[in-house]
Amino acid sequence: MAKVTILGATGNVGVFAAHTVSEIPYVSDMLLVGRPGREDFLAGCCRDLSDSFAARGTDVRLSYSTSILDAKDSDVVICTTGMPRRPGQDRNDLAFENAKIIAETAETIGRSSPDAILFLVTNPVDVMTAVALKYSGLQPRQIFGLGTHLDSMRLKSLIAHYFRVHVSEVHTRIIGEHGDSMVPLWSATTIGGIRITNLPTFSGLPVQEMIETVKTSGETIIRDKGSTVHGPGEAIATLVKAILGDENRILTVSSYIKSEIHGIGDVCIGVPARINRDGVFPVPLSLEENEVAGFRESVRKIRKVTADVMERLEEAR
Ligand SMILES: NC(=O)c1ccc[n+]([C@@H]2O[C@H](COP(=O)([O-])OP(=O)(O)OC[C@H]3O[C@@H](n4cnc5c(N)ncnc54)[C@H](O)[C@@H]3O)[C@@H](O)[C@H]2O)c1
Ligand SMILES: O=C(O)C[C@H](O)C(=O)O
């Protein structure tokens, strides 16, 4: 059985993730961590969740704290701490402010929970994954970000709707940045096990429109309802379950790659990775030419934002 800690547990994503993660059968203990001054809110969350556990028949020991040190002995630490973007902002606009929070958080987790797997949700998530890797001192397999998993789910939903098939019949991936330079892998997209490009109806698929919808999904939801919650919350639970259940699922997350994709590496970015109890392991991959070009471009962009942030962090510390 496992202990899961949620950092940023008073936030929109943190609160909902507490609910989805508590449904995972391997979770025995859950710690909600918020900022000092938020004790009443955290206590209220615990009471409210406990009511839902009673209604659902869930047996998870819940506690809260305002100290990250209490994450000690966690199997998985989910980090949703930091600013969300406001309408009109790009995720990368949050990079430096959130990096300061993540660097400090990662240092503490690295020292207090050296065996934990640290899961970054905070945006811009690829950059935050790199910052956490550097400042935690944990192994690359122990650090990953939500990456393009949510984008892949968004594309999956659009494809299923277009072809009027159950979502479980669609497998697809988006790799690269969780942002504008993301790259859809049509070469790895299947419906009912059949490569989508082999379907006669593929030529009519509004590919560009679909990708634009995925790229602007977060922005549109934030404009309409303030924050994205249910998509990320469910995606977080899928990934935590893949770890705790030692599932060896291949999901597309932000992870440190050495050279797994066409020799491209030394960056944290969304790639297909095997996920199990030991952590996250990028899968070596061959792509089609246009996909490699798009991925290179995405890597170039993320490397630049990451390098700028690392430099500013060094100056500020
Ligand atoms: N990767 C993804 O797909 C994805 C999806 C959704 C949200 N996000 C990101 O997750 C983060 C949280 O989103 P949200 O909607 O829950 O935001 P929110 O404002 O509702 O919650 C943010 C949480 O971080 C805490 N926090 C903020 N600044 C802090 C600081 N300096 N020190 C300690 N704690 C601090 C707040 O107290 C709160 O608990 C954002 O960065 C958002 O962009 C990422
Ligand atoms: O779009 C955002 O800022 C939140 C998140 O990254 C999302 O894609 O839902």
Automatic annotation (TrEMBL):
Ranges where the Lactate/malate dehydrogenase N-terminal domain occurs: 3-145
Family stated for the protein in its record = Belongs to the LDH/MDH superfamily.
Q: Which residues form the Lactate/malate dehydrogenase C-terminal domain?
A: 148-309
Q: Which PROSITE patterns does the record associate with it?
A: L_LDH
What is the designated name of this protein?
malate dehydrogenase
User: Where do the coiled-coil regions begin and end?
Assistant: none
State one Pfam family annotation.
Ldh_1_N
Give the function comment from the record. Answer: Catalyzes the reversible oxidation of malate to oxaloacetate.
The organism named in the record is Methanoculleus methanifontis
Kindly state which reaction or reactions the protein catalyses: (S)-malate + NAD(+) = oxaloacetate + NADH + H(+)
What are the entry keywords?
NAD, Oxidoreductase, Tricarboxylic acid cycle
Sorted alphabetically, which InterPro entries does this protein's record hold? Answer: L-lactate/malate_DH, L-lactate_DH_AS, Lactate/malate_DH_C, Lactate/malate_DH_N, Lactate_DH/Glyco_Ohase_4_C, NAD(P)-bd_dom_sf
Might you give the EC number(s) for this enzyme?
1.1.1.37
